[in-house]
Amino acid sequence: MILLLIVIYIAFVGLGIPDSLFGVAWPSMYQQFNLPLSTANYIIIFTSAGTIVSSLNSSRLIHRYGTAKITIASTLLTSVSLLGISLSPNIWWIFLLSFPLGLGAGAIDTALNNYVALHYSASQMSFLHCFYGLGVLAGPYFMSLLLKNDFTWQNGYQIAFVIQVLITVILFSSLRLWPNNEEKNLDEKNKNKKVLRIKEVLKIPGVKLTCVIFIATCTIEATCGVWGSTFLVNSRFMTVANAAQGITFYYLGMFIGRFCSGIMNSRLTSWTVIFIGHIFLLIGISLVFIPVQSFTVLMGLLLIGFGNSMMYPNFVFLTPINFGQKNSQSIMGIQMTASYVGTLCMAPIFGLIAQHYSTELFPYYLLITFLIMALATLKLKKQIHVLKG
Q: How many CB atoms lie within 10 A of CB 170?
């Protein structure tokens, strides 16, 4: 089980690398293709649409083919998409290839989150997302090194392609480690459980609030990941290469935050970890407001990544505790859909704001999103407390 868990961690590193590449590459991309700044929104939408499609169909596919085969096929699809993007002669090919990139990512995310939730502990769930943080940290780190040494964003995507191919080989080699009857056992366990419709799920007290929280935390993550580097270039006047290096502070904060969350989960309740994350997140946003090109804004991004990274794994873990195991599977699907809404809709909204007004509004957008999330979290905690008596 431990060896298989290590393989799953490696797969999540691969999941994280493509997620962070685009935001770092975009300042070079849109200048090379002579595009408006907000064109990134369409790429986000195509990628997120692929993610949603694969997530909605993942349960059926996993039941038919198994978690291992779906993860391998999805990682291979991600690899091919990355190579294709690196070779794209124009933006239209990038649009086209963003959809299968999202398809692969969504299937990996859903399959492995579900597998770890069923077979491992809360701390290991946090560590799983910690390795995702390692992947999103590695992406901009390698990209910044390449840009500083007169290479191109295409070279960054090609390196990501090679890494994904290696991870695919590791996953293929691990086939014998996966239980052959995992989906069958799961079906036997859950066959008497009622599958709720979306309207029924949303009527459960607290579900709408948790959806707001998932939208908000993923809005902050996606906005920083996609637009953080552009903000550093346009509003803090860094070079593209320095901004690419600077945004690694955000991803470093995410990695450290997920690691610390895994440790704290063994000593503190998930609610306590969540509120600790809120404090660091607010401090980080406050530092980004300071209008100087200095280490201060980078520390702000690090603390934003640190604080916000604690939200997703802990709220996922709290789902069966807050709403009961009977309803948790249906609610989990709604929560994941809500998280994709944060990426699909809210990050592009900031792109439009930046296009028509200024990237200076970046910290204001984060602050408003944070306040919505904080209020929803407090109200959810109170509501859960009342329901449980």
A: 16
Residue 121 and residue 339: Cα distance in Å, rounded?
22
- Check the CA dihedral 58-40-350-134 and report its sign: positive
Closest CA to 351 of 26, 94, 39: 39
Cα 352 to chain centroid distance, Å, stands at 21
18-35 confidence digits (pLDDT tens): 877 887 888 888 888 988
For residue range 278-301, list pLDDT tens digits in order. Answer: 999 999 999 999 887 678 999 999
Q: Can you tell me the distance from the alpha carbon of 193 to that of 316, in angstroms, rounded to the nearest whole number?
A: 20
DSSP 89: S
Distance of alpha carbon 324 from alpha carbon 387, whole angstroms = 12
Sorted by where each begins, the domain ranges of the chain are 2-175+195-387
Q: Is the pLDDT of residue 338 over 90?
A: no
Q: What CATH class is the domain 2-175+195-387?
A: mainly alpha
Q: Are 26 and 348 in contact (CB under 8 A)?
A: no
Provide the terminal-to-terminal Cα distance of the chain, rounded to the nearest Å.
38
d(CA 21, CA 136): 8
